[in-house]
Structure formats: structure tokens, C-alpha cells
Amino acid sequence: GEALYMLAQRYENGIDVKKDNQKAHDYYVEAFEQGQARAANQLGILYEIGAIDDKVQLEQAYRWYEKAGNKGDSNGFSNLARFHHYGVGRAVDLSRAASFYVRAAETGSFIAYCKLADTMLEMEDRKSDKWQDTLSRAKSLYQYGLKQDGKFCARRMGRLYQTELNDLRTAGYWYEMAARNGDKPAMQYLELIYFSSFDKKDYP
């Protein structure tokens, strides 16, 4: 199974062979049949981006992500969550997205903790009595995700401090961490903070 998966990767990316998405597809199917759960996730990606038959096939992609998730693949769960979170080929369903992010986190995805926090914040009414508790839980989830992800999770922590806690200095700290780790959106947020807030004179 592993050899078939690696062979599929070579054809998908054109490594030492001519790029051929159909051959990649066929080898991924064989790899999945031999127990490679991550091959199902790769098949989902191929269908989602339109690499098979030159057309986007979102339902086929979703089915392969389901197969990956059913075999315990965290990326499969993350992609299922993304479909429901952002309404990819279906209506937005934040509750289902959250449940899939939980499964992704349970199967090893640290970034899923941060996306779960995002979903929780989107679901909760800011005027609700539960809002402060939700903020606290989201902060804890971001911190847990930060144990292995210093880009997306650091940026999201920065946004939490900027937009919800109104603490620009701490937001700047997290944006800087994300930017140093190569996160471009964090760099843009950081620039806006420097130009519009506590460091107005620090133009360089």
C-alpha cells in the first residue's frame, strides 16, 4: 500500500515521471484498497480541484473524504469540516463542521483545534451569557493548537486578541509569531496594527 501511495504521489506531482492525474488516481485507489487511508484524502483533493476529467466533482470529493475519515485519517475529517464550515457544495452547517473538527483533532490534527475554536466563536451570539465562556474555551483551543502550529493558530490567536479582547499589543505579539513562521495574512495584520495603533511612529 505504501509503495502504491508513493507511486501515485510521483504521478500527481510529476516527480521523475510525466504528470498524469489519471494514473495518480488509479494508484491512489489501489493504495486505499490496501489500507492507505490518506490515499482516500488525496483522491478527494483530486476530485475537488478538477484534476479528474477536467471538472470539479464536489460530491465525489466529499465521498472520498468520508472514506478517509472513516479510516481514521485526520485530513479527511478536516476536509469534511471545511465543506460544512464554508458551504463547499452544500449549505453552511457550523454544528456539523465543529463535530468534524473534533474528530480531526482527536485523530492528530493540531490545527483542527484552532479551526474548532473559530467555529465556536462563529456559532455563539456575542450578546449571549455564554459569550465570555466561549471566548475562554476558544483561547484554550488556540493555545493547544499552538503546540504544533505556529502559523495559522498564532494568527487566529492574534485575531482573538485584536477583535474580541481589544488588546492590540498582545495581538501584535501573536501576529509577529505567525509572520515569522511564514504566514502572509499575519504580516498584513501586523502592518495594519503598526500603522494604526500603539506604534504609530514605528514606520520602518
What is the compact description of this entry?
This protein has helices at 2-13, 21-33, 37-48, 58-70, 74-86, 94-106, 111-123, 131-145, 152-164, 168-180, 184-196. The protein is mainly alpha-helical and 204 residues long.
Helical/strand content category: mainly alpha
Radius of gyration: 20 Å
Helical residue percent? over 70%
- Please report the total strand number as a whole number: 0
Overall mean pLDDT stands at 94
How would the global form be characterised? globular
- Helix count, DSSP H or I runs of 4 or more residues: 11
Beta-strand percent range: under 5%
- Which consecutive residue ranges, at least 5 long each, have pLDDT under 50? none
Query: What order do the helices and strands follow?
Result: HHHHHHHHHHH
How widely separated are the two ends? Answer: 53 Å
The major sheet is characterized as: none
